[in-house]
Every structure is written in structure tokens, then in C-alpha cells.
Specification:
By secondary structure, the protein is mostly beta strands. 14% of the residues lie in helices and 35% in strands. 33% of the residues are buried.
Length: 286
């Protein structure tokens, strides 16, 4: 499971000292100074700031490589796991919040409704600042890539708790342009037309499972799947407003909210919470 918790730790350790509950353990991977040059990430300067709102936000880890959005410097950084070979992958870009590496593509989803797609084979930005319209302003927090499917777990229709998904199938001839299917089309496609590389199941309540893992990156949908009949105020508070980070190899899920990361087991129960404490709250910049 080192893949996913290392991802979370790298970003948080840049600004915070982390306190974790057993049985999960963190380790410091790297620390980065505040700046615009090589080996640096930019944080805005605030007198006596608390948690820094300008920290890097997008993070992905695949095959020993971190991809990090250096948002203030308007660039995407490529960094090997051992801390060596730091380099700028993309420059002069307004990166988003949700960075996902899948196959030969790196997807960057922004809160503004725009997305970018980088093609590693061509070493170029295939699509820049294209709009992805799902009718959900916070879609970037609810988006995952499950094998060859992009799935957005949108808010339920008013007055219901039925999960909704917008979907897109990444085919072999994918050119970077994403055109989402609506919820009805997405479910019908997965049930009747999908012939891709993954195993998807749509259960009776409309939830999607990918290789046995619940696809519910929207905290409210995730909570309802496990606790609709047995309310749990602690889990509701944890998942409300949290951003889905990903799964580990055992299928456990990681959720981020401000200065904390929560680890949830495959049965929906809480395993551990990680809290960040600013180690230099009185500094002008860090």
C-alpha cells in the first residue's frame, strides 16, 4: 500500500509535520524550500499564516514517479520517488487540483471546469484548457479513472440518494478530447456495451464497482453506500466535503480534507486519521 500513502505524505510533509495513528505509518520522503527555481515549490507569503492555502494541490504517483502541480508557479513537476531527477514536465499552465496518471496520459482536472491532457508518448500537451461540462461545479473532487473509464460520481438528483455517474471510455485511438456520457448513458454503456479491459458491475442501487472496489469518490455517495441504514456521525463528518485520493493495494480508500487524511477500510470503517500541524506558523513564508 506504499503507493497511495506515500503520495499523500509527500504533499503534506512539504508544509506540515504529520501525526498518525497506528497501524498506518508515514515516512518523510522529501522537503522542499519555498521558491521558483529547481527543486522548489512556491507558497504565497502571509504574515503569521496558519495552514497555507497556496500549496501544491494535484498529486499522482505511478511506477516510482510523482507528478505534482506547483500551482503558484503554474507548472507540473515530475519527481522520482528517491527525490532525484526533479524536472518541470509542463510550464506556463494553470494546473488544477486533481492530477491522474493513466497509461500514456496524464490528466489534470481543475475546479474551473477545465481539463488538460498530457501525452507521454508524444511528450506534449494534447489538450489544453478544454471544458468538461457535467453540470457539477465540484466534479474535479469526484473524478476517478478506473482502468479505461473516466467516471465522475456526481451529486444525486434533488430529493433522492441514488448515485449518479458521468462516464467516458478511453479507447485506443483516444486523442485527448473527453465527451462525457450522461448518467443514463453511462450505466447503459457499462451494462450492455462495454468491451474494455476492466470488470465493472452496476448493483441494484446504481453503484458502480470496479474489480470489486466501490467507485464512489463523492463522500456523500460513499457514506450512503455503507451507512444509509445505520447512520454514523463520525464517518459522515469525515466524508462530508473530503476529496477522494485513491485506493491502496488492499482496496482501502484515502480521503483528504484541509490538513487531514483519513484511511477507510473496505467495510467503510475508519482505520486511521492523519493530522497536519504547521511547524512554522509564525513565519512570513515557507
Amino acid at each position: 500500500m506504499r503507493t497511495i500513502y506515500t503520495c499523500a505524505a509527500l504533499l503534506l510533509f512539504a508544509v506540515f509535520q504529520i501525526y498518525a495513528l497506528d497501524p498506518i505509518q508515514f515516512e518523510v520522503i522529501s522537503r522542499f524550500p519555498n521558491g521558483r527555481g529547481e527543486g522548489e515549490f512556491r507558497f504565497h507569503e502571509f504574515e503569521g499564516m496558519g495552514s497555507n492555502p497556496s500549496s501544491p494541490k494535484g498529486l499522482s504517483f505511478v511506477d516510482g514517479v510523482f507528478y505534482i502541480t506547483d500551482n503558484v508557479n503554474q507548472r507540473v513537476i515530475r519527481l522520482e520517488e528517491n527525490g532525484n531527477h526533479w524536472g518541470v514536465l509542463l510550464n506556463n499552465l494553470d494546473p488544477g487540483f486533481n492530477l491522474i496518471r493513466q497509461g500514456r496520459f496524464l490528466f489534470d482536472f481543475a475546479s474551473s471546469g477545465f481539463y488538460n491532457v498530457y501525452n507521454h508518448d508524444q511528450q506534449s500537451l494534447t489538450v489544453k484548457n478544454s471544458r468538461l461540462s457535467t453540470g457539477d461545479a465540484s466534479y474535479y473532487m469526484k473524478t476517478v479513472i478506473a482502468g479505461d473509464m473516466i467516471l465522475v460520481n456526481a451529486s444525486p438528483e434533488r430529493g433522492t440518494e441514488t448515485p449518479r455517474y458521468f462516464g467516458f471510455h478511453i479507447t485506443e485511438n483516444f486523442d485527448g478530447t473527453i465527451s462525457m456520457m450522461n448518467p443514463e448513458q453511462t450505466i447503459d454503456f457499462l451494462k450492455n456495451e462495454y468491451e474494455g479491459t476492466e470488470e465493472f458491475i452496476v448493483d441494484e442501487e446504481g453503484y458502480i464497482l470496479w474489480d470489486g472496489k466501490l467507485v464512489a469518490p463523492y463522500g456523500r455517495s460513499f457514506y450512503n453506500y455503507y451507512y444509509a441504514e445505520q447512520p454514523n456521525s463520525e464517518m459522515r463528518n469525515i466524508l462530508s466535503g473530503s476529496q477522494f485520493i485513491g485506493w491502496d493495494q488492499e482496496g482501502r480508500t484515502f480521503w483528504g480534507y484541509r490538513r487531514s487524511v483519513s484511511v477507510v477500510d473496505t467495510d467503510g470503517s475508519l482505520i486511521a486519521d492523519f493530522y497536519g500541524e504547521n511547524i512554522n506558523a509564525g513565519a512570513k513564508s515557507q
